[in-house]
Amino acid sequence: MDKIKKSILGPRLFVIAALAAAAWALVYKTGVASSDEAGIVLRLPEQVGEWRGMDLLFCPDRTCGGQFFSAQLEDPSTCPDCGAALGNMNWAERSMLPADTGLVRKYYARPGNQDGLHATIVLSGNDRSSIHRPQVCMTAAGHEIAHERVIRIPLEGRDEPLEVMVLDMLKPLARTDGAPAVYSSYYAYWFVGKDRETASHLARMAWMGYDRVFRGVSHRWAYIALAGARDPASDAHLQILANFASQLHPALLKPD
Ligand SMILES: [Zn+2]
Known about the structure:
This protein is α+β, with helices and mostly antiparallel strands. It has one domain. It is built from 5 helices and 13 strands. The N terminus is likely disordered.
């Protein structure tokens, strides 16, 4: 646990300066070249250390809401409940994200542990605004954010730790007997652009503005999210995240 240091002060001054650049970029955005270059590969490995990945499929029909492990379906192209064509986005993602947004996801579990987690990579398409501030989506989905902090995860072969934003969330559950019940979960994320990496949505917006103005390019940014259930009485999920993310990170780097 002592390897995870909580960062107290973010790079606020930098963010303010770069936000000014971003505002300027919004005004003078003509002549900016879009680049298809991304900072990572849009692919999740089968295996992350001892974690094994499984493909998930979603029914696009909101009322059906089916979710399946593709390995458990006889016909992975069709929803066994309603017959709709299955895909890798749930209905909310399908309705909110532009059609050219790239998305891959897997559910990872390790033997002898019940701490499985969902990993998702979203890669923005031509509309660079497709990646939103995640907190907005979480609260819209009925989650309350109980705690929000950046953790720093040591990476092998790199001096700079990986910074990951971790949201501890609570969601009231509707129970038939009327007793109060809460689902405790976490949602963790960081952003990757070409030669850039940050846990801060503001810093990402700032980098986008900076690259537009000073380099004349607009790269495709990716958003990596890890989510799972947590024990509301402990911070054990931070160690799980550190274990998983430190092993996932090298697999996402773009081959030169
Ligand atoms: Zn269905």
